[in-house]
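Usage

Read records sequentially. Each one opens with the input sequence:
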Amino acid sequence: MFVEQKHGIALKMQLSKSEEELMNIVWKLKKAFMKDLLDAYPEPKPAITTVATLLKRMADKGFVAYKIIGRSREYYPLVKKKDYFSKHVNGLIKNFFNDSASQFASFFTQETNLSKSELEELKKLIDNEIKKK
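and closes with the structure output:
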């Protein structure tokens, strides 16, 4: 979910799974024509009409825009990947972990089968954030 402010009203914007898959391609490519987007999909590739429909919905939601170059449209993201996913994580923490980051961290570290070295790396990241505060 992404919250956008329009005229002082917070709008909750969410991408479907297929829109999110396409959005990840747009983020990766930074700007792309339809052919570039289709080429970036794994097999089996979706139909061009499917991608066009997804792009239209994503543009209507304010996630992508395009420039017309010749007779083609060059698409680019309007929302940063980091911003979109931070909203998702914050919503997840709020809705499933009683707005408790420590409950989320406890679940994450226990249920994801992280190795000792991965846990140590997480600890370093947390220690660095503590030093910044």
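Summary fields computed downstream for this record:
- The radius of gyration is 19 Å.
- The longest helix spans residues 116-132.
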